[in-house]
UniProtKB/TrEMBL annotation, chain A:
Annotated EC: 1.1.5.3
Organism of origin: Halorientalis brevis
Domain (4Fe-4S ferredoxin-type) ranges: 82-115
GO molecular function, a single term: metal ion binding
Keyword Transferase set for record: no
PANTHER family the UniProt entry points to: ANAEROBIC GLYCEROL-3-PHOSPHATE DEHYDROGENASE SUBUNIT C, GLYCOLATE OXIDASE IRON-SULFUR SUBUNIT
Domain of life of the native organism: Archaea
Enzyme kind, highest EC tier: oxidoreductase
InterPro entries reported in the protein's UniProt record: 4Fe4S_Fe-S-bd (IPR017896), 4Fe4S_Fe_S_CS (IPR017900), Cys_rich_dom (IPR004017), G3P_DH_GlpC_su (IPR017753), Helical_ferredxn (IPR009051)
Compositionally biased region (Acidic residues): 1-27
Keywords on record: 4Fe-4S, Iron, Iron-sulfur, Metal-binding, Oxidoreductase, Repeat
Name by which UniProt lists this protein: Anaerobic glycerol-3-phosphate dehydrogenase subunit C
TrEMBL record, chain B:
Keyword Flavoprotein assigned: yes
Boundaries of every FAD-dependent oxidoreductase 2 FAD-binding domain copy: 6-407
Gene that specifies this protein: glpB
One Pfam family from the record: FAD_binding_2
Protein name per the record: Glycerol-3-phosphate dehydrogenase subunit GlpB
One of the record's GO molecular function terms: glycerol-3-phosphate dehydrogenase (quinone) activity
Xref: SUPFAM superfamilies: FAD/NAD(P)-binding domain
Superkingdom assignment: Archaea
Keywords: Flavoprotein, FMN, Oxidoreductase
Taxonomic classification: Archaea, Methanobacteriati, Methanobacteriota, Stenosarchaea group, Halobacteria
Length: 442, 424
């Protein structure tokens, strides 16, 4: 018997004969009208175990947040009815993507959240509202950073002025509790141009660096550590034109802004991939965006190629070099470290990488401060109405940092670093800086 | 360049963790790779060995008395009684102080959230005061916003099982104002934190105890759904018991399950202590063959494929729920190594008509030799250096037999020990 045959119970209405496909070929019934992006299969894969809900850092501290299972497959199904709006609570999702890692059934939860948030912002949010423009400016951090980098000292002085911060909170909804990150006096790209680009030429070992906004404008020491470490391993480095990875734009539902920058990034980097380059990132949210979110949301030519060629920097060396031996032969002078794995590193399977790698390095002790989310989630913790929630989520991490022996922090993610510094007062370093100190003699 | 280790374990559930620790103890460098969070988070936390025979006889008093009579091919028959005992001993060592039941080979009888009674070999200490063989009267307490545990219904069901005590059930509103559909972890964390309610000094635990106390009516023990703390379950139970004035126990629940989450935390800590390298988040999607051996497996990192090479491999990817077995209308497959899975060609022969009847699909899985190497249709090992453990194995129906955890421990121990010995 095949599924195409009528059920034996006469009370059940049978399918007319001419609608039964021939043979055993299975034709699924189209329940929902066609749309550009069909997430039906993903929604069907959810068997409601609620594991995602128990991993959601927002649901943990906010009773009113319905959780990823609702925001994803349930809302997607509800939306098949034309008159259903997206629930406003989608804006409370911080896009940490922990639900993706949690799901035992491969439901594309974060993709569903990104889609729903984009639709909410496009169709339901008042584009004349302060909230919309606040979010738009936060999401397009790169543009403000570009202006600030022209006059970094003035920008730093203005942004650290408490009156300016109070006004920012009152008028614009950006929390006055946080200190703005300082802008570097020389951006990474300025440094790169000044040194005359790559110092190593290679036919077969080539990487294209996606530095992102933060290591360009705020922490060029991380980008420089990347350059020196990769050149130590004889890689030729390219630093092409690039925009924002899109992470803060996805998280704010600004998909048009994200598409604009993604188009540039894919164009520049896919060309280099053609020339034998692999793409590396020093920020785990940037690598997450290029690897996973781009192919989920965009279909520019070269998207899949860039996605499949992108790696986090330390991960890349671990795969392509004998990093373990290099590390166990080395010695370093570095303060002991309290390490936090960013959520987006976790989704890429990188959450234990730094601790396991540096465990064999003489001269530095590194401790994992646990699996909780830092709570800041990019622009999320900068919004006045989200600040308290962000700090409540981070509470567990702060406690574990306090208990750890090291009084310097370490993480791959720039905004996790802000949160760690804000909650503990520690200076925060990047794994690439430890690698550079251990392997590269300057 | 491949990422290298002596032993690579694929899968992060009970079987994979047991295999990794067993292999590491023979001195091998072991890496465990696991895709998503394991189905341990769905597990009740009860560790059963054998509750019923394959013919449905039971509940069995002593699982070890029945193991010798199991049919050829059953995982316990493959590994032998000693491996079952060794797997349990390893579990007892890892969970020391948080699990009970090791004092005897006999099964304990633990009430479930549906009010049935499950024969099990080990149980979390939080369930100890709830055993069905205990004659003391019990009050079961459910929460209004936690539909997974209907205490009055469970109590009625327990009464119908002939348990030697009187069970009553009440449903109370949790003392903290919550949304309509709170997560189980929300209850647990509120009890962990025990903060003052409504700005006062009376904590959540005391407020809950006071709500329950009035319903006690002579009951000497009180059962709650298994949400009594995530980080500090012992303190939560002790405070509740003191404030209520009766013993307190947890009733194991469906997914997501706090006893399962606590067990997962404990097991991952044991992996760290054993020096096992761990990677979660990326799937193993294929392998390279070298003659009769697996040369490397391929881990997919969002599209880019990275080889992982080892001397020995253990496949512990789980069954149909854990996705170690995949199926469609054409057939049932083991997706990583494409190991042989015996199955009737017509899929209408995969199941029986009675929902709770004897279903062939429940016994689908890879067929191992006595060293737990999966064999092909002709009975020859598919690879010299690949072993399988846990629910990916066939020839047993863990749901009907109540043998899931025991098989994972016994085969994980056996596969991991052999892999570790051969790799070093």
């Amino acid at each position: 018997m095949s599924d195409a045959e009528s059920p034996p119970d006469d009370d059940v209405p049978s399918v007319p004969d001419d609608e039964i496909p021939a043979g055993d070929e299975f034709e699924p019934v189209q329940v929902f009208p066609d749309s550009d992006l069909d997430l039906r299969e993903g929604a069907d894969d959810c068997y409601k175990c609620s594991t995602c809900d128990t991993n959601c850092p927002v649901a943990e501290v906010d009773d009113d947040f319905p959780g990823p299972k609702f925001q994803g497959p349930e809302q997607w199904r509800l939306k098949r009815k034309d008159d259903e709006d997206i629930d406003a609570s989608i804006m409370d999702c911080s896009n940490c993507m922990r639900c993706d890692t949690a799901c035992p059934s491969d439901v594309p939860l974060s993709q569903m959240h990104n889609e729903a948030r984009g639709e909410y912002v496009d169709e339901q949010m008042d584009t004349w509202s302060v909230e919309y423009w606040r979010n738009r400016v936060l999401a397009n951090y790169r543009i403000s950073a570009w202006f600030a980098s022209k006059m970094p000292r003035l920008a730093n002085a203005v942004m650290s002025n408490s009156l300016v911060r109070q006004v920012g909170e009152k008028l614009f909804g950006v929390t006055a509790e946080r200190e703005f990150p300082a802008f570097a006096e020389q951006t990474f790209r300025e440094w790169w141009a000044e040194r005359g680009g790559p110092k190593v030429q290679s036919e077969d070992k080539r990487v294209a660096y996606f530095h992102g906004c933060y290591s360009n404008y705020n922490t060029p020491e991380v980008a420089k550590a990347m350059v020196r470490t990769f050149e130590h391993f004889s890689y030729q480095i390219a630093v092409p034109d690039q925009g924002c990875s899109g992470t803060p734009m996805f998280a704010n539902g600004m998909l048009d802004d994200a598409r604009r920058d993604a188009e540039l990034n894919i164009k520049e980097f896919s060309q280099l991939v053609e020339e034998g380059y692999d793409v590396i990132c020093s920020c785990t949210s940037c690598s997450m965006a290029l690897r996973q979110e781009y192919p989920e949301l965009f279909s520019f030519e070269g998207t899949a190629k860039v996605s499949a060629s992108t790696y986090e920097a330390v991960e890349y060396l671990r795969i392509h070099e004998d990093l373990g031996s290099a590390i166990s032969d080395a010695e370093v002078e570095f303060p002991d470290l309290a390490y936090h794995a960013p959520c987006h590193a976790r989704s890429q399977g990188l959450d234990r990488q730094a601790v396991e790698l540096f465990r064999d390095l003489d001269g530095v002790k590194i401790e994992d401060v646990g699996e909780s989310c830092s709570g800041i989630s990019g622009t999320y913790g900068w919004k006045s109405e989200k600040y308290e929630k962000s700090m409540a989520i981070g509470e567990e991490m702060f406690e574990h940092m306090d208990e750890a022996e090291g009084e310097t922090g370490m993480t791959e993610c720039p905004t996790c670093a802000m949160q760690m510094e804000h909650g503990s007062g520690y200076e925060i370093r990047h794994p690439l800086e430890v690698l550079e100190a251990a392997l590269v003699s300057r | 360049m491949a990422i290298e280790q002596d032993v690579l374990v694929v899968g992060g559930g009970l079987a994979g963790i047991t295999a990794a620790i067993s292999a590491a103890r023979s001195g091998a460098h072991v890496r465990l790779v696991s895709y998503k969070q394991s189905t341990l988070r769905h597990a009740s936390g009860l560790v059963d060995v054998l509750g019923y025979t394959p013919d449905g006889e039971g509940p069995l008093v002593d699982p070890f008395d029945a193991i010798d009579d199991l049919p050829e091919g059953h995982p316990y028959e493959r590994v032998g009684t000693d491996a079952v005992a060794s797997g349990l001993a390893l579990f007892d060592e890892i969970t020391a102080g948080t699990y009970e039941g090791s004092h005897t080979d006999a099964n304990a009888l633990v009430p479930t959230h549906g009010g049935t009674i499950k024969p099990t070999a080990r149980y979390p200490d939080s369930a100890a005061a709830g055993l069905a063989s205990d004659g003391r009267d019990a009050l079961l307490v459910g929460f209004e916003r936690l539909p997974g545990f209907d205490a009055p219904l469970a109590a009625t069901h327990l009464g119908a099982t002939g348990a030697p005590f009187r069970a009553r059930g009440v449903t109370v509103e949790f003392p903290v104002k919550l949304s309509a559909d709170p997560k189980v972890t929300r209850f647990a964390h509120l009890l962990d934190q025990d903060e003052g309610i409504d700005g006062g000094t009376r904590g959540v635990r005391r407020a809950l105890a006071e709500l329950v106390k009035g319903h006690l009516d002579g009951a000497e023990r009180v059962g709650f759904p298994a949400v009594l703390g995530d980080d500090h379950p012992r303190e939560v139970r002790a405070d509740l018991a003191e404030y209520i004035g009766a013993d307190v126990f947890e009733v194991p629940m469906g997914p997501p399950s706090l006893p399962g989450i606590r067990l997962e935390d404990r097991l991952f800590a044991a992996l760290d202590e054993a020096g096992v390298s761990i990677e979660t988040g990326n799937p193993v999607v294929g392998f390279e063959r070298d003659g009769d051996t697996v040369a490397s497996v391929t881990v997919s990192r969002t599209g880019n494929e990275v080889p992982y090479a080892a001397e020995q491999y253990v496949l512990a990817t789980g069954g149909l729920v854990g996705k170690g077995l995949d199926s469609d209308r054409e057939g049932v497959r083991e997706p990583v190594f494409d190991c042989h899975i015996a199955q009737p060609p017509d899929r209408y022969d995969w199941f029986g008509d009675d929902a709770f009847g004897d279903h062939p699909f429940a016994r689908f899985g890879v067929d191992p030799d006595r060293e737990l190497r999966p064999v092909d249709a002709g009975g020859t090992a598919e690879f010299d250096n690949l072993r399988a453990a846990g629910a990916v194995l066939g020839n047993y129906d863990f749901a009907a037999e109540k043998s899931g955890s025991g098989v994972s421990l016994a085969t994980g121990y056996h596969a991991g020990t052999l892999a570790g010995e051969e790799a070093t």
